[in-house]
Amino acid sequence: MSSNRALIVLFDVIVLVAVTLFSCMLAVVAFSKNIHRSIGWYNLMTSWLVYSLSYGLLVGRQEGPAKPPSGLCLFQTSLVYAVPPLVAVSTLCYYIEFYLIISGLRSGSPRQSSFSRTFWLVITPWLVFLVIVLEVLLFIFPGGHLHLLDAATHDFYCNLDNIVPNQVTAAIIICAMAILIPLEVWTGFLMYRNWVVFKRLSRKDRRLLLTVYIRLILCTLAAVMAFVCVRWFFFIMPDATSLVYPTRGFLVLIFLVSIFIAFAFGTQKDLLQAWLFWQPPQPHSSIVFNRGTLTTTSISTSRTVARTGTTEIPTGTRNQAPVP
Questions:
Q1: pLDDT score recorded for residue 283
Q2: Distance of CA 228 to the CA centre of its chain
Q3: CA 76 – CA 53 distance, rounded (Å)
Q4: Which residue ranges run through the membrane (predicted)?
């Protein structure tokens, strides 16, 4: 088997594994009565599922003398430029949701759930996605660039032999990361500065907040490193094909980020226990989310009760609610 064919097979396997992991994760959470997640979590995982599916449309069609069907190639091209901003903005919106929880707990005052806020946090990534798809289609047809549509030189998926769509995609990702990274740093600072308030939470809730924060940090670092390396290889070293800088092999490594994301969000304790269907279910509760929106839960700094909406409960008691 040639090195190019081996890399294509490896790429296809990674794509299929990513699709399987995200599909199983979403199915388990959706059908389990003991696992609760926020709408933001569903939105983020769905974004990564669409990301993985978009790059797998040519699985089994990358090789051979015949080119991929033009309609399929056009469809994939419109997606591969739109899904990176989709996952970037979805991650940002999910983190904004997490930040609002931390900010609410820090202030010690109830945070009322807002339908409009939740709606825009969910819909914004998909609006960006649709705008990029439209931009690519307008670039191809009215722009007269249909001749640039072809399978990429690495044979993994279709794209355009033009730098403009890449620049638009990169600009949106950079904007999202420019907001996300400082927000992550500021959230960590708030958690550290107000740790006395967070100590009023139960041990499981503190652990939940810390693990979600660490998972988000690691995922952001992995995504940023992948993005920076892609920009470096394809703009600074566009002709790098040696063993030291193998473009095709590097693309395979880049796509491993989706596998990393799937494991980062799919290895939480309640999700892992859901696979052990022969064991008695163990409900997992948290004061972080409630029915897919931000809760009104707060930790009082002057009284010995935690408020959830209009109901007061002892600080040692927790209500059943989704995990971020």
A1: 56
A2: 17
A3: 10
A4: 6-29, 41-59, 79-98, 119-141, 170-192, 212-237, 249-267
Measured distance CA(18)–CA(263) in Å, rounded:
10
pLDDT digits (tens, 9 = 90+) for 70-85: 788 889 888 989 999 9
Residue-wise over 120-155: b if at least 16 C-beta within 10 A, else e?
ebbebbbebbeebbebbeebbeeeebeeebebbebb
Phi, psi angle pair for 125, to nearest 5°: -60, -35
Looking at residue 37, what DSSP letter applies? B
Residue 274: the pLDDT is 77
Put the strands of the sheet holding 298-299 in their side by side order.
298-299, 305-308, 311-314
CATH 1.20.1740.10 fits 3-314, yes or no: no
Report, as ranges of residue numbers, the positions in the chain whose pLDDT lies below 50.
1, 110, 238-246, 285-322
Locate the domains of the chain by residue range: 3-314
* CA 20 – CA 157 distance, rounded (Å): 19
Q: In terms of DSSP H, where are the helices of the chain?
A: 3-31, 39-55, 70-80, 83-107, 115-140, 163-193, 195-198, 203-231, 247-266, 269-274
